[in-house]
Design a protein that fits this description.
Largest sheet: 5 strands, parallel
Function: Essential for recycling GMP and indirectly, cGMP.
CATH superfamily: P-loop containing nucleotide triphosphate hydrolases
CATH class: Alpha Beta
Mean pLDDT: 88
Subcellular location: Cytoplasm
Number of domains: 1
Helix content: 40-55%
CATH topology: Rossmann fold
Structural class: alpha/beta
Strand content: 15-25%
Shape: globular
Number of helices: 7
Order of helices and strands: EHEEEHEEHEHEHHEH
Catalytic activity: GMP + ATP = GDP + ADP
Oligomer: single chain
Strand order of the largest sheet: 2-7-1-8-9
EC number: 2.7.4.8
Radius of gyration: 16 Å
Organism: Intrasporangium chromatireducens Q5-1
């Protein structure tokens, strides 16, 4: 991807409700568009069975996470669903942008709002499900959360869906390839679709 006229890359923030497929879209972009720098978030939650440390997330304990917060090492961070902390390490993103690479952050709504406050020139994309019923089906089908956790996540998703107007563009995740290619097209063109 080309850098803007200042020689810096562009920061693109992808957010949306739980189970909408942010991780799936980000994985597709990482595989099919290797010129995009993909930021790997840090979390205190335990890895799911198919997750690898340093690929989907950097998994750390609470003490390490809190040390990094105190040191100012996160671009954004939040306690998500009242259970685990997530954050975007600042250094790798800033280095990629300085090198002229476009960077993609896959984060939650709280994190997107923090990035908006500190980096208002970033491009913000909201990923939405084709329907509420499809979102519920995806969350239940994942089979990684118990009933209480699913209910917490669905309550959060209802609030997150209402934030759609805060974003520069909206993509419906009804097909992974199509939605991923639309995301990359928006990243490269800089136009909005709302």
């Amino acid at each position: 991807m080309s850098a803007d006229r200042r020689g810096r890359g562009r920061l693109v923030v992808l957010a949306g409700p739980t189970a909408v497929g942010k991780g799936t879209i980000a994985a597709y972009v990482r595989t099919h568009f290797p010129d995009v720098f993909f930021s790997v978030s840090m979390t205190t939650r335990k890895p799911r069975p198919d997750e690898v440390d340093g690929v989907q997330y950097h998994f750390v304990d609470e003490g390490e996470f809190d040390r990094l917060v105190t040191a100012g090492e996160f671009l954004e961070y939040a306690l998500v669903h009242g259970l685990a902390k997530y954050g975007t390490p600042r250094g790798p993103v800033e280095r990629a942008l300085a090198e002229g690479r476009d960077a993609l952050l896959e984060i939650d709504l709280q994190g997107a709002r923090q990035v908006r406050a500190t980096m208002p020139d970033a491009f913000f994309v909201f990923l939405e499900p084709p329907s509420w019923d499809e979102l519920v089906r995806r969350l239940v089908g994942r089979g990684t959360e118990d009933e209480a956790e699913r209910e917490r996540r669905l309550d959060t998703a209802r609030r997150e869906l209402a934030a759609k107007p805060e974003f520069d563009a909206v993509i419906v995740n009804d097909d992974v390839r199509r939605a991923s290619e639309e995301l990359v097209s928006l990243m490269r063109s800089g136009r909005t679709n709302r």
